[in-house]
Design brief:
single chain; alpha+beta; 4-stranded antiparallel beta sheet; 5 helices; 34% strand; globular
């Protein structure tokens, strides 16, 4: 799961207007005129094998040969990894086995601290809205870190490693535990499952996080991925979306190319 404080903000000189509600800006201008402004470092919650954070999908646990967690596990993903809509390709670093993981993102609408695990209303009331995201992961980097007991920061934290959709109004997702997430690569469906498969539901996710760190208005929490994660390479095109009651949410669609990353980084064993 990932936590960040972000808001939509119109680029300087862009045409259009915005409305503000509880600290979250919803753009009323074209997607190309919008970007995510990062306000604080995000926290990525438990990707451990399933719907990130609290929600670990049972089948995803199996496909990565992970042990089913007894509680949610979360880790940090930097805000600089955010790739706003229409803002360019995902950049694949040299030597990195790049994997996709489609996830539902929760946008927090108010401060949350020490939430009781049984307070489902409190958990859902704290959500301002939603977004769709693709948590990009350097799988070989992550596996190397796991073997040596090291943090996963590099595996999750490269620039562009978090493509994210436009804001989805809360009213468009009446039940976040009953939506379909999907992802395709070059037109082939790779992931397609319901959030009802989460091992941990949203109240448990938010409760566990808020017992450790205060969630603030504007924070974004990624909730984990279903089965079907896999590699992409330069030249591939990823498309992801979210359906509610079988209906596609246009604002939740993501389309992004993968290109090689320049610069000095080249993965080698630690």
């Amino acid at each position: 799961m990932t936590i960040f404080n972000t808001l939509f903000q119109k680029k300087a000189g862009a045409q259009g207007s915005q409305t503000k509600k509880d600290g979250i800006y919803k753009s009323q201008c074209a997607e190309s005129d919008v970007h995510w402004q990062k306000l604080r470092v995000p926290t990525s919650i438990a990707h451990l094998n399933g719907l990130r954070a609290d929600k670990v999908n049972r089948d995803h646990v199996k496909e990565l040969n992970n042990v089913r967690p007894k509680q949610p596990f979360f880790f940090l993903k930097p805000s600089s990894s955010i790739l706003p809509p229409k803002s360019g390709p995902v950049l694949a670093p040299r030597g990195v086995n790049l994997h996709y993981e489609v996830e539902l993102a929760l946008i927090i609408g108010k401060e949350l601290r020490d939430l009781d695990v049984g307070d489902e209303k409190g958990a859902l009331d704290a959500i301002e809205g939603y977004a769709l995201s693709i948590d990009m992961t350097g799988r070989n980097v992550q596996e190397e870190a796991k073997k040596k007991g090291l943090p996963w920061s590099i595996a999750k934290g490269f620039d562009t490693f978090l493509p994210i959709s436009n804001y989805i109004a809360k009213s468009n997702i009446p039940d976040p535990h009953n939506v379909e997430l999907y992802l395709t690569v070059n037109g082939e469906v790779k992931q397609s499952d319901s959030t009802e498969l989460m091992l941990f539901r949203i109240p448990r996710i938010l409760s566990d996080i808020s017992k450790v760190m205060t969630l603030e208005k504007g924070d974004v929490v990624l909730t984990g991925t279903p089965k079907g994660v896999g590699p992409v390479k330069a030249g591939d095109v990823m498309k992801a979306g979210i359906k509610v009651g079988g209906k596609e949410l246009e604002e939740g669609m993501i389309e992004v190319d993968v290109k090689e990353k320049g610069g000095l980084y080249d993965f080698s064993d630690t």
